[in-house]
Backbone:
């Protein structure tokens, strides 16, 4: 089945999406605002960097998928 839509997948598959994934939350890690989710091992994993400083996007320690310590 192919579904062509502009709606986000979270709105279409609300129930299954919320059961499988934890809710993302906004935190400041070393002064850099990031959105993180908790993975299966109860570690925080970066989903998105929200900084207004372009240098933060070039920082190798902050990228989507990175586990924060």
Residues:
């Amino acid at each position: 089945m192919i579904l062509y839509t502009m709606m986000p997948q979270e709105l279409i598959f609300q129930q299954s999406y919320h059961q499988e994934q934890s809710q993302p939350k906004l935190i400041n890690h070393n002064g850099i605002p990031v959105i993180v989710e908790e993975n299966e091992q109860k570690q925080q994993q970066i989903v998105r960097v929200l900084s207004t400083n372009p240098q933060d996007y070039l920082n190798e320690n902050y990228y989507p998928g990175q586990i924060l310590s």
